[in-house]
Design a protein that fits this description.
single chain; 353 residues; alpha+beta; OB fold (Dihydrolipoamide Acetyltransferase, E2P); 2 domains; six-stranded mixed β-sheet; five-stranded antiparallel β-sheet; 19 strands; globular
Length: 353
């Protein structure tokens, strides 16, 4: 990353004795699409609110473009926010809603109207300016809220679960639209969601939050395929978690005794340590391949068709472990059938607790 655009330094927020955000240090680059991902109560919305100036930190600093904005009110910050409920004005037209921020900045009416139409064109609502907010669908209202936010040309656009109220198909469509608009504008987006698929679809960088702290941070593919912690592995999609004990170091990795045998994983831990290993369901192989390792036999207990794959629940031969795997729709598997499970060594991930 070049010089960071947004810097959070030792950021902490408490409410009485409850800690919402606990000593966060983050750096967000110019033009980056960052997603704060985590369950309810993880601190992600509080962080967004402190960046926007709606919540005052208990400790720490917020810098944008090298300027300390910690004590600066929201209206003076180079940010704009798209709220989950859109916060549109029902008594105003679509065009007036989009131009509202410009009006607050004393932009002349003709320029406001021109900019509002440009923004509506950008979000696919050309010609909708005269309409009432009541005449719009949920997806269209979301686009109006987005157009209003970007009309003021913010340095940082903050999005607080803006797609949460949309149905699945429209949400997926709007995810693509957000990425398209962000790349076209080059504006830094900071987006809050609890939807893992949404995070992976839109983000350049995913920051996984848990109990007010950063659990993991990086490109979506890395965070998904090589999660850093046990929480990250279980929250960022589904995973098979194996408990085990380190028996010895092995080069750049360790050997771990598990219910599926002794497995090798990259990473550092001391002999005798209790650890966890992660294997994603799609990384369990049903057919032999050069270089794979055997995980023993298991029996298919349940199976369901998911369109792109078969979702299978299996129980290890010893009966001590339940496993989830995804098989091809034409895979020769059936409920009650015994199968041999395999995995690539690189797909076995050592986790921090």
């Amino acid at each position: 990353m070049t010089e960071p655009l947004v810097e959070l330094v030792g950021l902490r927020k408490t409410y009485d004795r409850a800690v919402a955000v606990d000593k966060i240090d983050l750096a967000i680059g110019k033009g980056e699409f960052v997603v704060l991902l985590g369950p309810s109560g993880s601190g992600k919305t509080t962080i967004l609110s402190m960046i926007g100036g709606f919540t005052e930190p208990t400790e720490g600093r917020v810098r944008i473009g090298g300027i300390d904005v910690t004590a600066m009110p929201p209206a003076r910050r180079p940010t704009a926010t798209v709220f989950q409920d859109y916060a549109l004005f029902p008594h105003m037209s679509v065009s007036a809603n989009v131009g509202f921020g410009l009006a607050m900045r004393k932009v002349r009416r003709a320029e406001r109207e021109r900019r509002a139409e440009d923004m509506l064109r950008l979000v696919g609502l050309e010609g909708f300016g005269p309409r009432s907010i009541h005449q719009l669908s949920g997806g269209q209202r979301q686009r109006v809220a987005l157009a209003r936010a970007i009309a003021v040309e913010p340095t940082v656009l903050l999005l607080d679960e803006p797609l949460g109220a949309l149905d699945l198909a429209l949400r997926r469509q709007m995810q693509e639209e957000l990425v398209r608009i962000q790349k076209r504008l080059g504006t830094t987006f900071v987006h809050v969601t609890h939807d893992q698929e949404e995070a992976m679809s839109v983000a350049d960088t995913v920051i996984v939050m848990n109990r007010g702290r950063v659990e993991d941070s990086g490109q979506p593919a890395r965070v998904y395929l090589k999660p850093a912690t046990l929480f990250s592995a279980t929250f960022m999609g589904e995973s098979n978690i194996l408990s085990g004990r380190v028996t010895e170091r092995a080069g750049e990795g360790v050997r771990v005794e598990t219910a599926l045998g002794v497995l090798t994983a990259a990473g550092q831990a001391a002999p005798g340590d209790r650890v966890h290993l992660s294997i994603r369901p799609e990384q369990l192989l049903l057919e032999p391949a050069a270089g794979e390792v055997s995980l023993g036999r298991a029996r298919i207990a349940e199976m369901s068709f998911q369109g792109t794959h078969l979702r299978c629940h299996a129980r290890s031969e010893s009966g001590d472990l339940e496993l989830l795997l995804r098989a091809r729709v034409d895979a020769p598997v059936a409920v009650g059938e015994a199968i041999e499970l395999r995995a690539w060594p690189a797909d076995i991930v050592l986790l921090k607790d």
